[in-house]
What does this fold into?
Amino acid sequence: MMTATHRLGFTDKLRAHLELLDPVTWISVFPCLAGGVMASGAMQGTFHDYLLLLALFLMFGPLGTGFSQTINDYFDLELDRVNEPTRPIPSGRLSEKEALINSIVVFVLALGIGIVLGIHVGGTRGIFITSAIAVGLFVAYIYSAPPLKLKKNILTSAPAVGLSYSLITFLSANALFSDIRPEAVWLAVLNFFMAIALIIMNDFKSAKGDEESGLKSLTVMIGAKNTFLVAFAIIDMVFAVFAWLTFSWGFTILMYVILVSLVANITIQIMLYRDPKGGLSFMQHAVDDGFGNAIGKSDVQEHNSFLRYQVANNLLFLINLLVAAGMVGARYM
It folds into this structure.
C-alpha cells in the first residue's frame, strides 16, 4: 500500500514543504528589521537599497526562520505526534528525508545570502551581518538538535529565540546601511527581552507534550498563572526601561506615551491573570478574524488567552518602538 507521502501531487508536496517552513513565523522578524533600518537613518529610497533590505528579509525570514522551524520539526517528530499531529512530517505528507533536504537547502541559501551581503557591505559591518546569520543558524540548530537541545529548558530556550529572532535581526538591519547606532543597541536589547517574555507564554500550547517528554518549559515547572506573572514582570520592565531611555534621549512626549502604554498593558495583564483561561474574551474576534492568520490559533485555553493578549501588547510595544527608531534615525540623517 502506498504511503501518504507518495500519494501527494507536486503542488501538495510543495505546499507541505512551505508549511514546514512555517510562514506565520516569518513576520516575527519584520518589525526588528524595520526598526533597525529606521534607526540607521541612512537607507535611501533607491532600488539598490530596497533590494538589500529584501535580501536581508529573505535571509532572516523565509530562510533563517524557516530553517529553525524545519529543523525543529525534524528532531521533534515524536513530540509533534502529540502536540501538532497535523504538521507535515507527523501527518505523513513529508518524509523525514524530505524534511532534512528542506533544512539543508534553506540553510545553504541563508548562509549564502549572508556571505554575499557581507562582501557587498564590506568592513566591520559586513563581517557583522555574515556572522549574525551564521550565529542565528547555529543557534537554531542546537535549539532543537541533541545533545544540547536548548529547548529542553526555558532558561536556554527563551534567550536563544530572543537572540535569533530579535537581537541579531535588529542590529543586522542597522548595520546594512550604517554603523550600528548606540540607541539601536538599546532598542535591540528591549526586543530581546520582549521576545523572551512572549516565548515563555507561547509554550502554553505545548505544555501537555512538554510534560510527557520531560521538556522543562516554565508552564510545566510553575504552572500557568505563575508563568503569566513572570512574563508580565519582564514585559513591564521592558516598558519601564523603554520610557527611561526615551527620556534620556530627549524624546519626552514619547516617554509619556510609553508610560500610558505601560498602564494600559498592566490593566490588561490584571484581567488576564484573574482569568488565565478565559481572560480578554472580548478580543477573541480580533484573533479569529483579524490577526488569526498572522499569530495562529489554539485549542489550549491559556494559549488562546495569550494570543488575545499578544495582539494588544504587540500593538502597544511595536508602535512605540518604530516611532522611537524613526526619531533616532532622524538624528543621524
Notes: The two ends are 66 Å apart (CA to CA). The first helix runs from residue 4 to 7.
